[in-house]
Amino acid sequence: MLRLLLDENLPDWISETLRQKGLDAVDIREIGGSGLSDEEVYNRAQSEKRHIVSSNFKQFGNPILFPPSKHTGIVVLRLPKCSTHTMASRLIDFLSNA
Fold this sequence. Notes:
Strands 2-1-3-4 form a four-stranded parallel beta sheet. By secondary structure, the protein is of the alpha/beta class. It contains four helices and four strands. The chain has helices spanning 14-20, 38-47, 57-60, 84-96, and strands at 3-6, 24-27, 51-54, 74-76.
């Protein structure tokens, strides 16, 4: 089962919606992680064996900063010109079928 850690740049209601669909999803804000640096979010995800879900392409999409062979997994959303609701819906559909 996918264990997900959602970054705070995503709407906070996504984690609850994913849980309702049977996924193990936690928003970083739910566990006192609001305001953490990207490195701290990364370390938290690795210690809990969770995949990071973020829209922060500049950081989490950088394989030099976060080499794929060194982490559990990172999902970076890059959906230009769409609303937050559309982005969230696409993420929920994608993860529900993963």
